[in-house]
Amino acid sequence: MTMTSNSPNSAGIDPVRAGAESLPAALAHWAETRGDARALTFVDYAGDPAGVATSLTWRELDAKVTALAAWCQRRAHRGDLAAILVEQSAEYVIAFLGALRAGLVAVPVFEPSPLPGHLSRLAAVLADCDPALVLTTRRQADAVDEFLVEHDLAGSRLVAVDMLPETIGAEFDPVPPRPDELAYLQYTSGSTRNPAGVMITHGNVAAAATQTVRAYEGTPGGTVVSWLPLFHDMGLVVGLAAPLMGGLSSTLMDPIAFLTRPVRWLELMAGSGAAITVAPNFAYGYTAARTTDEDMAGLSLDAVALFGDGSEPIVPSIVDSFYAKFAECGAKPSMFRQGYGLAEAVLLVSSSPAGEPPKLRTFDRVGLAAGRAIEVAPDAVSSSTLVSAGQPLDQQVRVVDPQTHVVLPDGHVGEIWTSGPNVCLGYWGKGDAESAAVFRAEPRDEDDRPLEPYPGTRGWLRTGDLGVCLDGDLFVTGRLKDLIIVDGRNHYPQDVEYTVQNAHPAIRRHAAAAFSVAGDQGEHAVVVAERARQVTAEELDPAEVAAAVSSAVSSEHGLAVRDVVLIGPGELPRTSSGKVRRAACRTRYTEGTFGLDG
Fold this sequence. Notes:
Elements: H1 23-33, E1 38-44, E2 52-57, H2 58-73, E3 81-84, H3 90-101, E4 105-108, H4 118-129, E5 133-136, H5 141-150, E6 157-160, E7 182-187, E8 197-201, H6 202-215, E9 223-226, H7 233-246, E10 249-253, H8 255-260, H9 263-270, E11 275-279, H10 281-290, H11 293-296, E12 306-309, H12 316-326, E13 336-342, E14 347-351, E15 360-364, H13 365-370, E16 383-387, E17 391-392, E18 396-400, E19 414-419, E20 426-427, H14 432-439, E21 461-470, E22 473-479, E23 484-486, E24 489-491, H15 493-501, E25 507-519, E26 522-531, H16 542-557, E27 561-567, H17 582-591
Parallel strand pairs: 1-10, 3-4, 3-5, 5-6, 9-10, 9-11, 11-12, 12-13, 26-27
Antiparallel strand pairs: 1-2, 7-8, 8-20, 13-14, 14-17, 15-16, 18-19, 19-21, 21-22, 23-24, 25-26
Helix pairs in contact: 1-2, 1-7, 2-3, 6-7, 10-12, 15-16
């Protein structure tokens, strides 16, 4: 399979600051050339449901970042790590960029939170990276200090970034970063493994941010709107790095504010003109389901530039539900841009062209599981409709046999490998051999000759994702490690989960996990599903639901489900971007730590 990079700005229009090799350099450029223009707005809904907006110009942001950088320089050495334990706010942006400008390695994480699993994950991340500094805010300082002491992590020096006077910026000693120097560690969300710190250089993030701006055709003075957490790879690149590299203003809100009332996201888009946004697939269905007719009164999305979707395989019905819901507000399928990416590539690998509706292809489900993309009619029995993830962005992409490492021809399912300037160095604290196996792999052609990587790079990234190429489009089919293999047959979990959620009205939509576990007689399939919120535990009949699930999965997939576990709403393990953590579900199931509901 051959896939070449697309260049959305092939006409010669380049919105990205030429020569900016780092985010601090881009910030300095915009502060000098567009100093009084708005760079950043944070809309706070915590105290006022209508939202209170606070904005910074490029010059103001630059001054605050420089002040923090000066403070960091006096308390840490170049290359030391600085963890960011800041709530979603303008201060998060200042903390991240201040660490980079000081020559430190930022570790974007999150403030101590009572949300399930967050405290243990935060402790594990900090223990793994052992930062010299912990950056937080006055509001969070006491809680962060208590957390560090409680988890024996008190060796790090703590500072509230919103308490520093801007006058100390005069003491800053510039340290221009080199492209090959570490900029930050992006800890993965842990959908298939324990969180690991991906080592991202200044060159990596500059390249990825540039790719993102070009793909989405952002121009200086435009606006990006994001509710995604800034510690997450998608939130950091879309909400911070890409706007900074392209000179776009960024309008941010807290994820909880979105989850509480998702129409706020659309209201900010409507009020920002030709705005750009990107969100995981689930967010579009969630917004459609949670927005009332009253919410939509007066909402106009006609001027929105694009809605991007860059999460795991896109569910066509979710996209359809969003545009059906908001068609009267001006939302059109041509606004939608689907893509594919991962933290190890600093976000985007591919994206669809502008101005085209999502491209759907329907394949025989059994054929896909067996490794071949055989097109069938949309209403065919045993069919699976996939949405194209578009074409590569300034990088090379191949579909490779994960066992032989030989590149596969079009129409064959294999592991997605990519090579480009956005591909990272490796995993923090891991041996070079472990990182090399993932980040510097060596594919071969059908004549057993090695394939050259992208010019100036060292190898190919094994994404761990499965996909197929047809007519120049990449279709993502699932995770390699998530495949359910029973009796020698492969089953994609998302296909099984779609059947499960429609098997009985007591099962919550988009809240099921299907996986296999080892038994005495080999692998067998298990389903864990949340009950619908409108169904109480007392009303639930677990045996009836389990029978319906088993019957539906057997009929649709020829797969016997050994066990169906029902849990309460919100109990399914998810990543910070909302993806179901199937590996975590498998672990909890085998450990017996899922509480049976009902």
